[in-house]
Amino acid sequence: MQNPKYVMGLGSCTINGGMYFDSYNTIKRLDYYLPVDVYVAGCMPRPEALIAGFEKLKTLIRAGKAEGANEYANRFDWYKENQKAVIRDWDMPDYNW
């Protein structure tokens, strides 16, 4: 996929695991696996919250502060190790990384 890339975390589950925070098969924070530019809280987020999230993302882009894609490239090994830790049956060749 071509650059730029932006990530919005939608819902409480992406922030802290939501109501399933203590479940064995829930990752708690999306930002351990992908850099998140904007979070939109709620379960499910209301339409007004989504619009506010997109407005916040537009503001960050205009200010040059939406740097999630660059952060992913700079900390790739850290994100990759976190991703591998939650995928127990990692059956992907290393050349895909």
From TrEMBL:
Which Gene3D superfamilies would you find in this protein's record?
Answer: 3.40.50.12280
Its BP terms in the Gene Ontology are: aerobic respiration; electron transport coupled proton transport
Q: What class of enzyme is it?
A: oxidoreductase
Of the GO CC terms on this record, one is: respiratory chain complex I
Key words of the record: Oxidoreductase
Domain NADH:ubiquinone oxidoreductase-like 20kDa subunit positions: 1-56
Q: What is its EC number?
A: 1.6.5.11
Q: Which Pfam families did the record assign? A: Oxidored_q6
Q: Which GO terms describe its molecular function?
A: iron-sulfur cluster binding; NADH dehydrogenase (ubiquinone) activity; oxidoreductase activity
Protein name stated in the entry = NAD(P)H-quinone oxidoreductase subunit K, chloroplastic
